[in-house]
Each structure stands twice: as structure tokens, then as C-alpha cells.
Write a structure and sequence with these properties.
Elements: E1 4-13, E2 18-27, E3 30-36, E4 46-49, E5 54-57, E6 59-64, H1 77-86, E7 89-94, H2 105-118, E8 122-125, H3 141-147, E9 152-153, H4 162-174, E10 179-181, H5 186-189, E11 194-195, H6 198-203, E12 207-208, H7 210-227, E13 231-233, H8 239-250, E14 255-259, H9 261-265, H10 287-299, E15 304-305, H11 314-317, H12 334-343, H13 349-356, H14 358-364, E16 379-389, E17 408-418, E18 421-425
Parallel strand pairs: 1-4, 1-5, 6-7, 7-8, 9-10, 10-13, 11-12, 13-14, 14-15
Antiparallel strand pairs: 1-2, 2-3, 5-16, 16-17, 17-18
């Protein structure tokens, strides 16, 4: 494999704090050198001119739904991994709510092996907290971790039983497995399809109050304090949840949290025309919630940006709003939506890159997320000023369900390298 020299770009490496124009050399699948300034490449090397571009650690998404096994009409591991690479992500963590759910070691190995075969982004996987995602009996965390699971979660479903959640945290702690939680009190949100507020009243749709998320976040933070386990809060969406995480960190509780681009970009105004492409769980919230999430990303309360990439076919979306499936695709729009926060002055370029790479790597102890000599050459080249129009019909993902179709945006991953191999370029 010929050497690849990424020359003249702005290197942003949050792990080391490096922010300088320079050159990254890739050799034999690993980072061979990170040099300030331009260095003359040897004969035979492939030279990529990165002037005006950012050279950053490969982006990592902790929260994607790849739908395989069971719902391959929506997405497959291969198409999802290809979409990840197209969005600049070199690694993703698949959620377990497939058919059947990923609740044993054999299914964990299946997902990992299919990801390796696909050959695009690295595919890691979670395992279920409970067998069949039914919230009744714990799955075998030890065997799933041994097979390669990087966390456990019943994502899409909350663990309503507090005693069971305590046992899950205690059990996971023995294997140093993070527990990712979908925070929703079903007794408060049952039947809801939209954020509770003026918009739900106007549209005549049952509302999902902030409290349904907030009370579960508070419960699980206290259980994490009790057990010493690592709690990771998925797709946090409310100002109250941000406050709770901020206070938990002040107390020294082992809690991390992620936010999605749609929750820091859109409010529930996006569903004003009953647009099912803006229907998700947790739902889009109020402007005050959006502002709180943005502040949490900026001040370090929140640790990662994750897409909650959730592809659906038209069969699940082209139906009345109340009947439509929750979720949107997000892998191919995360970069420009995040960079919008940079242009607004809310995030520095370094902080934006950290939230998409080094932050996620630290949370689940994943390889990657940094530009270090000897590390696997998982690298993303971003053009922060590239203007383009989101066209869902051209996504690498099978999913077309996005509220951002037709948006004119700036910033795009133009090259994605995984293990030194270019798996995407435009």
C-alpha cells in the first residue's frame, strides 16, 4: 500500500491539543508522522492537497441503527457503514433493537463480522440490557463483552423497573461496561407523538412532557451514584436533563451524555405541517431546550455528538403522523449541522472535532479519535467551507427520512480513511 501524504491542511487533534497547519503521513495502515508545516513527500507517495481543509481524527458515532438483522429493507450493515464513511465517520456503534435483538454473544459476533466484511467504517456494537429488550431479565453482559460488545443498552425502550436498572448497573460495573440509557417514563409519555406544548395543542396530538425524560435521568444518575457504574445518557433532549448531568458531574458521578444534531438544530416547529420526517423519540423540543443543549455542548457538560441514525422506508413514514415510525437518518448531515455551531461562535473548531471524535472514543474506550503516531490511520478530511444542498435521494444510506432535505449547508467530509484506506472521497 502506497504511502498517503495529507499535505498542508489544518490539523485539529483534540487529544494532543494540536491545532496547526501541517502534514499527516499514512503508511501501512497506521499514522506514520504528524508534522507541522509541509514536508517533501518521497517518490511514489500519494499526495493529497489539503490546503484550506481540516485534517482530523476519524469521526466516531456512538449511536446508530443499522437495522440488520431483521429490517434490511430499511438499512443493512453494509449500507449503514457506507453512509458513515460518506459522512466522515470511521467508526460507529450499532444499537441492539434489531429483529431479533442483539442480546447474546452470537448476535454480537454477527454484527461485528458483517461490519468487517463491509469494509467501510469500523462497526462496533452494543448488546441489550435485557433479554429480548423486554425489561424483565438481564442479558449475559460478560459473554457479550467477550464477543466484542462495547456497551449495553435497551435503546428505544427505557428500563422502567428501578430495581432491575440497579442490578444492570451493578452487573455492568463488574465488566467495566458502560450502560447507555433511553430516558423516558412511559407512565408520563405513553401515547405521545410530539413534544408537549403549544405545538402539540395546535396540532391536536398527544404530547411528551419534558418531565418524562427528566425524572428518568434523575433516577438513573442516583443509581449510578449508588453503584459506581458508568451511565451514558443517549440522545438527551431537555434543559432539565442538561442541568441534571451538569450537577452529576460536579458531584463526581460517572455519567456521560450525548446530543444529536437534530436536537440542537431544530425545534418542534419542524412538525408544524405534520412532517413525519421530523418525528422522533425523544421528540424535537422547545427553543429553550435547544439553547440548553447547545450550552451543554460548549461548556463540557455533554461529551459527544451522536446521530441516532434511524433509517426507515416510506412504508413506515408515509402514513398519518401518529402512526409513523420515530427517527431520522443522520450520518450524512452531522458534519455541516455541527459546523453551523462553529460559525455561530458557539463551539470552537477544536471543540466541534472533540465532540465528534475524541469525546466518543473516550466514552466507550474505543480505538481511534486521535492522530497519534502508530495509531490506526482513521482520518477524516473536512472542507469546512464547502457549500452543498442536502439531497436525500443521493444518500449512501437506504434511508431517505430526513427533515433536512433541500437545506443549503456548509461543511462536508471530502475524504474518509479507515486503516489507511480511502473509503470515501469526493
Amino acid at each position: 500500500m502506497a504511502e498517503i501524504w495529507l499535505v498542508g491542511g489544518r490539523i485539529l487533534d483534540p487529544a494532543s491539543g494540536l491545532d496547526a497547519a501541517g502534514t499527516v503521513v499514512v503508511r501501512d495502515g497506521a499514522v506514520a508522522a504528524v508534522e507541522r508545516g509541509e514536508v517533501a513527500p518521497p517518490p511514489g507517495a500519494r499526495v493529497v492537497d489539503c490546503r484550506g481543509k481540516w485534517i482530523v481524527p476519524g469521526l466516531i458515532d456512538l449511536h446508530v441503527h443499522l437495522r440488520e438483522p431483521g429490517d434490511e429493507h430499511k438499512e443493512t450493515i453494509e449500507t449503514g457503514a457506507r453512509a458513515a464513511a460518506a459522512g466522515g465517520f470511521t467508526a460507529v456503534v450499532a444499537m441492539p433493537n434489531t429483529k431479533p435483538p442483539i442480546d447474546d454473544a452470537a448476535l454480537v459476533r454477527f454484527v461485528i463480522e458483517r461490519g468487517e466484511k463491509a469494509g467501510y467504517a469500523r462497526v462496533f456494537t452494543s448488546g441489550a440490557i435485557t433479554r429480548g429488550l423486554r425489561g424483565e431479565q438481564l442479558a449475559d453482559f460478560g459473554l457479550m463483552k467477550e464477543a466484542g460488545a462495547v456497551c449495553v443498552t435497551d435503546d428505544g425502550r427505557p428500563v422502567m423497573n428501578a430495581g432491575l436498572m440497579r442490578r444492570a448497573l451493578e452487573y455492568a460495573a463488574t465488566f467495566d461496561l458502560p450502560v447507555m440509557v433511553h430516558e423516558e417514563d412511559l407512565s408520563l409519555s405513553g401515547g405521545a407523538v410530539i413534544n408537549e406544548g403549544p405545538m402539540s395543542a395546535r396540532l391536536g396530538l398527544p404530547g411528551f412532557p419534558n418531565a418524562a425524560e427528566d425524572v428518568m435521568v434523575l433516577r438513573d444518575i442516583e443509581l449510578a451514584a449508588l453503584t459506581g457504574a458508568h451511565l451514558h445518557i443517549a440522545h438527551l433532549s431537555t434543559a432539565g436533563a442538561v442541568r441534571a448531568v451538569r450537577e452529576a458531574k460536579r458531584r463526581g458521578i460517572r455519567v456521560t451524555a450525548e446530543a444529536t444534531p437534530h436536537h440542537f438544530t431544530l425545534t418542534d416547529e419542524a412538525v408544524a405541517a405534520y412532517d413525519t420526517n421530523a418525528k422522533m423519540c425523544p421528540p424535537l423540543r422547545s427553543r429553550a431546550d435547544v439553547e440548553a443543549i447547545r450550552e451543554g455542548l460548549a461548556d463540557g457538560t455533554l461529551d459527544a455528538i451522536a446521530t441516532d441514525h434511524a433509517p426507515h422506508s416510506s412504508l413506515e413514514k408515509d402514513v398519518p403522523f401518529a402512526l409513523a415510525a420515530n427517527g431520522i437518518v443522520g450520518l450524512e448531515t452531522a458534519v455541516p449541522l455541527t459546523l453551523a455551531l462553529v460559525r455561530e461562535g458557539l463551539l470552537t473548531p477544536m471543540r466541534a472535532v472533540e465532540l465528534l471524535s475524541w469525546g466518543p472514543a473516550r466514552i466507550f474506550g474505543l480505538p481511534g479519535g486521535r492522530l497519534q503516531v502508530g495509531a490506526p490511520a482513521d482520518v477524516t478530511v473536512i472542507d469546512p467551507d464547502l457549500e452543498w444542498e442536502v439531497d436525500a435521494n443521493r444518500f449512501a444510506s437506504k434511508g431517505r427520512n430526513t427533515p433536512f432535505h433541500g437545506w443549503k449547508v456548509r461543511g462536508r467530509a471530502i475524504r474518509t480513511l479507515v486503516g489507511g484506506k480511502i473509503v470515501h472521497e469526493i
